[in-house]
Amino acid sequence: MAAVVGLVVFGVGATPAHAETVRSRQWHLTTLHAEEIWQRSTGKGVTIALIDTGVKAVPELSGRLVPGSDFPGAGTAGRKDGGTTTAAVIAGTGKGPGGVQSAFGLAPGAKIMPLNISDGYTGKGSLADQEKAVDAGLAPALRYAADSDAKIISVSVTLPVIAHDTSPEVRDAVAYAMSKNKLVFAGVGYASYLDDPGVDTPASLPGVVGVTAIDSKLTRLKGTGVGRTVDIAAPGTEIISACAGGTGLCRTKGTEVASALAAASAALVWSVHPDWTRNQVLRVLLNTISGPSDGAVRNDSIGYGAVRPLRALKTPGDPGPRDEYPLDDYAEPNPTPTPTPISTPTPSAGAPAPAPSASAGTPDLAAAPGTDGHSTGFWIALGVCAAGLLCLAVGTPLLVTDHRRGRTA
């Protein structure tokens, strides 16, 4: 079986041969066969709650935004419109200013509910203050999304677990969202520190689908989080999408972009099968995934593999039981969720088999983090860490917000 490093090749589509357009530069949509997908589904009828630092109503999102809400800290982030990019990655209509052709999202018929919080970094205050700032917005945003009409939640703002003890409020809020049958995606983030590339919160929490990022060669991005709560992969670098300011187009990267594409994939499937539960939608995404290239069920770098929304739409197979969650870190909750870890269920017949460890014959994709994807300030901070000074106070705040950068396309 032919393979690219890390993932089975799943049919990379050819870039259109006509003169270059914004769409022809969106490699991730070509790889995912977006035009064929849109003949079957655009995500219409599905709302995604996007927890980020703010969404601006750019032309590409015209008609795609529904009322959301601001939470403690909203408007304090360095990028107050950081969610514009991720929203457009999901639901961009391809119509820019004046109706000119622009960037598309993977699910251009889906709706976005912006839930705006702080990214925790204001340039002052202690690490603990910054963590509290994120938690103060994240917990109520999750609960708001849980009580809304949104079926899917995508979380862009994450915190490194090595320096962050997940608050009971956030843990409770995730459990509450799960009890409301929401499908929750979150980026796994980047390596917190050189020797501990763990999975960020809330992707590390039971039930949350942890999403890592791959490039156009289907290889995991260096430095992304590694661990047993990495569940799936999606494109997450050189992603051209609509954004606020400048030319109106940005080239971005990060696991929050991959999370947005995973959420969009779920919306595409749920739109066609509105009677399915979140368990069935996720099970079909997992059962039609492009797995590790050596045939392993999963590993700690790319999880079960890369999402294939076209295959999930064309040949979904048996969606399995309505009330059994397909990932083994979570069981259906009691009526009143608690912050304590939830017991592991027996996998259903339609679910992926229990995961072997990353060392059990799977590809070693956990390459040492490179400088790629981090700001100069981050690496200066790590230099300070190496000297044993101010590691927690300096390094993590820079990392928390480091992924929110983009550049003009």
Automatic annotation (TrEMBL):
Fetch the InterPro entries from UniProt: Peptidase_S8/S53_dom (IPR000209), Peptidase_S8/S53_dom_sf (IPR036852), Peptidase_S8_subtilisin-like (IPR050131)
Q: Where is the composition biased (Low complexity)?
A: 345-363
Task: Return the annotated region ranges for Disordered.
Answer: 310-368
Hey, what's the signal peptide range on this chain?
none
Q: What spans are recorded as compositionally biased (Pro residues)?
A: 334-344
Highest taxon of the lineage: Bacteria
Q: What is the similarity comment for this entry?
A: Belongs to the peptidase S8 family.
Q: What is this protein called?
A: S8 family serine peptidase
Origin species, per record, is: Streptomyces roseicoloratus
The major lineage groups are:
Bacteria, Bacillati, Actinomycetota, Actinomycetes, Kitasatosporales
